[in-house]
Amino acid sequence: MKCFIIFVFTFHLSLFTFCQQTQKPPLHGKNWMAITGKPLAAEAGAMTFQKGGNAVDAACAMLAATCTMWDVLSWGGETQALIYNPKAGKVIAIDGLGVAPSGATVDFFKNKGMNFPPEYGPLAAVTPGTPGGLCYMLAEYGTMSLKEVLAPAMQLAAGYPIEAQTANSMERGKKMIKQWPYSTSVFLPHEGQEREAPEAGEIFVQKDLLETLTKMVDAEQQALKQKKTRKEAIYAAMERFYKGDIAKEFVRGAQEQGGLITMEDLAKWKPIEEEPLHVNYKGIDVYKLQQWSQGPSMLQALNILENFDLKSMGYNSSRYINTLYQTMSLAFADRDFYYGDPYFPPAEPMKGLLDKAYAKQRAALINPDKNDPDIGPGDPYPFEGKTNPYLNILKQRGFNVDTDNKTNPGATPSHDATSFVNDSAYMDRLWRGTTSVEAADKDGWVVSVTPSGGWLPACIAGHTGVGMSQRLQSFVLDSTLDPFNVIEPGKKPRVTLTPTLAMKDGKPFMAFAVQGGDTQDQNLLQCFLNVVEFGMTIQEAVEAANINTDQLWLSLGGEQVKDRQPHPGSILINSNTPDYVRRELIKMGYKLTFDDRTSGPINAIYFDWKHGSFWGGSSNHGEDYGIGW
């Protein structure tokens, strides 16, 4: 009888409280939390905290380590961050995204027969943003010297036992790597042998990169000897990278291999501190980067979802999935047409896009019984008191937005989802990952970073050891696809990178980020809802089964327009999805694909103000790792 009572009680609870066994335990700490994509990089954050650094110092140390370990990014990539500054009581955004170099014009690439800038190689590169982004964050909001923060990364560059994931990525990409002599010398130390990349556990040495980092630290230390302040000394290191001998070698090596980046491009580029965008969802303020990222699409989705009782639908029921899928399709349709660099004209209609009334109209388009394959961009301009100047382009594309802000059925190109359900190249470009960095400390500093760029197979610029970014591919050459994101020298591409901070009652609530191309804000949206609507712990939320929609334009890869077009109705769901949910989704018009892990990988920190502690969630999807104290 006793066992029966316990069983009934446990079953009764399961009806009302989400509870699942996680594959990784939650992290707990009261002093600090450090989470990122590699165990050794998380240790770099922990070492920095133990030396007395704050969350910004630790985040910079983890960023430097992940770049050095080629965690699907390099030092020549881009860094974008959200920081909660407890002294000012506000969230700030750091834009460390590079820009299109001189000569990177529509005509340049079209004359080469391209429909988009290339995926790989020196012509795919924007100017490096990570060195500047790291230096800016450290100088303005950290407490330590660059020498202290870069120490773990420099030890790694001097030689560390490489893990299988990165080593095997080098081996798989060796055919492309051999096009670039500086990459070959770094990534293929056993050239000519059957396995040319390092083996797992082999000590991987990067002498050129170590010299570059040493030069930056030397510039800082020389400035300190000249009685410069800590901040001025860090900026001296940044100047050596962008204007000194490091810059000269970077440009020489890039141009030797066919790249466009010039000394003037590097000298003119600077990181930017911005006001983030935010919306309030049921009393929680959610902050994202501006429209040069895809971050506002999650804000738009939250505005739309506020119009539904998600909890009553049930976690990952067919009704919930259908509502979520169409919500994301609506938000991404706007992202794909209206987002771009806010520092270049034309001005994006962000006020209208984030207006609650606009979201309510968009929510009215959701069909509760089946997926709508014809979802397209809406018209946010009336919500700014303006007339949409792009109605002719929308009409040309087949999107006839009427006065009620509805897109007429049949507007989008027709697709047969069955033809691409198993398209591995498409799915690779959809999920293409990088890493994430999350840090928090007892004094209230919180950092969320999604760095990227310069992933393997990367083209290294000369003897710098620095892999060049491949982010230029996120531009369009055809203004009818997105009139705000057409390539132009000095302009930022609209990227997928999208850290998140959420605040409640004026205090940090969650800091979270994820890798994974166009799926990033899909997974982050669901992670947030998992906590807020379904009461999951942060570790449950980062591991929980999510869905991915393919009903969007890809931001990465694909030489032809058809390679990037939306795939309406194509959906990724977890392999454990019950049969009855699968049947209902098929009836709703979905084409199903499956995976046993569909959660990210997401890394997150939850702030437990009741107990004065942190909960850390570190993804079970790959090598992501966290340490708390």
Task: Give an overview of the whole structure.
There is one protein chain. The chain has 629 residues and is an alpha+beta fold. Helix content is 37%, strand content 14%. It has 24 helices and 19 strands. A seven-stranded antiparallel β-sheet has the order 1-18-17-13-12-9-8. A seven-stranded antiparallel β-sheet has the order 7-4-3-11-10-2-19, with helices on one face. α2 packs antiparallel against α6 (146-158) and α6 runs antiparallel to α10 (207-225). It is globular and about 65 Å long. The relative contact order is 0.18. Residues 1-17 and 408-422 have low confidence and may be disordered.
List the helices and strands and how they pair.
Elements: H1 2-14, E1 27-29, E2 32-36, H2 39-50, H3 55-68, E3 79-85, E4 90-96, H4 106-110, H5 130-141, H6 146-158, E5 160-161, H7 164-172, H8 174-177, H9 181-187, E6 203-204, H10 207-225, H11 230-243, H12 245-256, H13 263-268, E7 272-274, E8 277-281, E9 284-288, H14 295-305, H15 310-313, H16 318-338, H17 350-353, H18 356-363, H19 391-396, H20 424-431, E10 437-441, E11 446-449, E12 500-504, E13 507-514, H21 520-532, H22 538-543, E14 548-549, H23 561-564, E15 570-574, H24 579-587, E16 591-595, E17 602-608, E18 613-618, E19 625-628
Parallel strand pairs: 15-16
Antiparallel strand pairs: 1-18, 2-10, 2-19, 3-4, 3-11, 4-7, 5-6, 8-9, 9-12, 10-11, 12-13, 13-17, 14-15, 17-18
Helix pairs in contact: 2-3, 2-6, 3-5, 3-6, 5-11, 6-10, 10-11, 11-12, 14-16, 14-18, 14-21
